[in-house]
């Protein structure tokens, strides 16, 4: 038994245009083509292939991926990779929805209160290096803690547990990010490998608290820069990011708390 393309389209619940497209790209070619009138005919067993194609397409697989599976390639790794891509897309959509909620609730601008603080001098143990992406920051800090235990087991942090990150690159970068993590300690220890020690003088700092995900930290920076311009201040040293709460102790990004500190001096 053979079916004309129109009959086959009704049985398979797809348009004739779609069947012709699948024919052109080699995904599902007719089982028989009349050499005289060029009519396309499909075989009953091809309906199972069409149903499989439709399932794969609904699952988001590309034509190339489906073609590889129908040609006999192992479906498992193809489906696993498509799942990874789809999960990433879902996370992106979820993040866009979250940001739309914020825009509807708060508008385009976040409100920051700038507070000027006297930060006393201190001694810090630090680790300088590079990370591939900002997602690697937690691992960088955890690695720092392990290095300190191995090289300076008797090292004691100050009671205020003051710590911060500075960034070394002259411009914002998404990847290959240069940074330094500093932790205040009661006294200097022994430098070893990536671990070093530095004495900081006391500074006057313009500070804001940023609540929420890190993708809006630029707005906190902007608020401080505007305040500095209005008050005749200049940056005296690298900005400091103090991560008070983050993924290590909060489940939701909405509960993250970061204090941005700009060491300042009177403009000339």
If you had to describe this structure to a student in words, what would you say it looks like?
It is built from seven helices and twelve strands. Strands 4, 9, 10, 11 and 12 form a five-stranded antiparallel beta sheet that branches. Strands 6-7-5-8 form a four-stranded antiparallel beta sheet, covered by helices on one side. Strands 1-3-2 form a three-stranded antiparallel beta sheet. The model has no long low-confidence stretch (mean pLDDT 88). β2 (32-33) and β3 (40-42) form a beta hairpin. With 268 residues, it is α+β, with helices and mostly antiparallel strands. It is 37% helix and 26% strand.
Observed structural traits:
268 residues, 5-stranded antiparallel sheet, alpha+beta
Secondary structure topology:
Elements: E1 3-4, H1 5-12, H2 16-25, E2 32-33, E3 40-42, H3 46-58, H4 63-70, H5 75-106, E4 115-119, E5 122-131, H6 137-151, E6 163-167, E7 177-185, E8 195-200, E9 203-211, H7 217-230, E10 233-235, E11 240-245, E12 257-266
Antiparallel strand pairs: 1-3, 2-3, 4-9, 5-7, 5-8, 6-7, 9-12, 10-12, 11-12
């Amino acid at each position: 038994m053979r079916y004309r393309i129109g009959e086959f389209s009704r049985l398979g619940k797809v348009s004739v245009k779609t069947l012709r497209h699948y024919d052109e790209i080699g995904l599902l070619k007719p089982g028989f083509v009349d050499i005289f009138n060029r009519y396309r005919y499909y075989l009953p067993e091809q309906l199972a292939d069409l149903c499989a194609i439709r399932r794969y397409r609904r699952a988001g697989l590309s034509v190339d991926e489906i073609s590889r599976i129908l040609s006999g390639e192992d479906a498992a790794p193809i489906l696993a990779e498509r799942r990874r891509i789809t999960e990433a897309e879902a996370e992106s959509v979820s993040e866009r929805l979250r940001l739309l909620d914020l825009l509807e609730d708060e508008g385009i601008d976040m409100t920051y209160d700038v507070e000027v603080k006297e930060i006393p001098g201190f001694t810090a143990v630090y680790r300088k290096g590079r990370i591939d992406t900002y997602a690697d920051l937690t691992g960088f800090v955890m690695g720092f803690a392990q290095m300190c235990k191995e090289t300076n087991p008797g090292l004691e942090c100050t009671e205020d547990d003051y710590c911060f990150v500075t960034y070394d690159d002259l411009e914002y970068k998404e990847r290959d990010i240069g940074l330094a993590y500093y932790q205040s300690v009661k006294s200097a220890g022994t430098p070893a490998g990536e671990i070093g020690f530095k004495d900081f003088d006391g500074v006057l700092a313009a500070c804001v608290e940023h609540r929420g995900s890190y993708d809006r930290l630029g707005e906190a920076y902007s608020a401080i820069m505007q305040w500095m311009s209005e008050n005749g201040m200049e940056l005296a040293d690298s900005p400091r990011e103090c991560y008070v709460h983050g993924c290590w102790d909060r489940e939701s990004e909405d509960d993250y708390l970061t204090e941005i500190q700009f060491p300042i001096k009177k403009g000339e």
